[in-house]
Amino acid sequence: MRGLRAAIGFLTILPAAPQVPTAGLSNAVAWFPVVGLVLGVAVAVLDGLLMWLGLRDGVLLLLEGVLLVALLAWLTRGLHLDGFMDTCDALAGGRDRERRLEILRDPHVGAFGVVAVVLLLLAKVSALAALPGESRLWTIVLVPCLSRWAILVVMDRFPYVRQEGLGAPFLRGGSRRSLVVGSVVALLATVILTGPVGLLMGLAAGL
Hints:
This protein is mainly alpha-helical.
């Protein structure tokens, strides 16, 4: 279970693994979709509570979306938002590979990153407000799981840009095995939450 604790400690604010040996971090990758499920359930619980309080009418839907996005950002320490801003800064401001890597190492956030993350957060809030009731629960639970599973796909299919970095310890050994295990978790979650129709839609999207 050390891999699960490492995944929770890396992807969330929860102090599940304050001291994990670097050599053992590669075992954590397969657990990323499981951590995504935990995050999705937490957001779904808040969504149910807000629905019980009556925040489902008119402009209150937007307020509910803001609260759900804020909870997810807090639970994940804004890790993915920070990476998204760095990526946008590097892609928009870097003229060549060396300059882009330099921007990625810079701890400061540029104008491109700020504008991009504001638009991203607005899109998330709007999407949550527009979710229909019949598919709202499984969407909220499943999307964090599938997005963490997508990390495994990217790690398996694309080379890491640097020898050292935040993601380097997770790449050392077992990436294909982790992808298989994580894919099984994501597949089971999709079938359980959405049934065969959701699975077929996911396969069609993958094609």
